[in-house]
Amino acid sequence: MQVVSRGVAATLGRWRSGVLDLLYPPMCLNCDAPVATHDALCASCFADLRPITAPLCPRLGLPFEVAIGEDAVSAEAIADPPPFDRARSAVLYTEIARTLVSRLKYGDRPELARFCARLMVAAGHEFWSERPVLVPVPLYPMRQFRRRYNQSTELTRLIGRMTGLAHDPLLVRRKRQTRQQVGLTADARARNVSGAFEASPDTLARLGGRPVVIVDDVITTGATVKAVTKALQKAGVDRIDVLSFARVSAGTDLS
């Protein structure tokens, strides 16, 4: 009976999916062109993404144009060593990545997180064997209320589901409201978020010795994830990595 029930459920699921596809045909997340499945880009838009792959800086995850040695780090990591251990991102912050992030963050399009999360799981593959706890960059409560959801939490939840990893959206809170980072210089961004985050008093007990992966939609100057890292370190966490969907490279307009 259980086998029959499962078969019936699977058939009904396929039928329901087919009906929904007829009513709401799958469209490209960027240009609305027809695509084969939901939560996908068309071939043309996908080709415009710039995936970040090796060779890359082992600390910041910035891509190198050519391989310069297994232990070589980027000039950015040498000039300003990050407080976290490693950062990885799925794609460079090109125009199409900017559009996806903007729609996810400001356009009330939480379904975009599914596409971004799939690419992020692949980008963070070095982290998963350590069974870390996924922690989103928190929003200030009033800002989250206005947006209806936190895009970083959506990404964290989906990555957790895809990898089987635990996630803790309440481990770190934003204790004061900060200005929007868009349009600020690197120094202004750092000042804006300095001291803005606080880890839970029982952080170490909740982690149980596991490392942390901070999850965000985009890394620009890195000011926000650095501030979250310092809050976790203040609570005693000593192994922290960072994962984002997109990453700004040198010379990219931050506006």
CATH architecture: 3-Layer(aba) Sandwich
Strand and helix order = HHHEHHEHHEHEHEHE
Structural class: alpha/beta
This entry's quaternary arrangement is single chain
Identify the strand order in the major beta sheet. 1-6-5-2
> CATH top level?
Alpha Beta
Strand tally: 6
CATH topology descriptor = Rossmann fold
Structure description:
The chain has 255 residues and is of the alpha/beta class. It has a single domain (56-247), classed as 3-Layer(aba) Sandwich (Rossmann fold), CATH 3.40.50. It is built from ten helices and six strands, in the order αααβααβααβαβαβαβ. Helix 5 crosses helix 7 (151-163). The longest helix has 22 residues, at 2-23.
How do you describe this structure in short?
The chain is of the alpha/beta class and 255 residues long. It has ten helices and six strands.
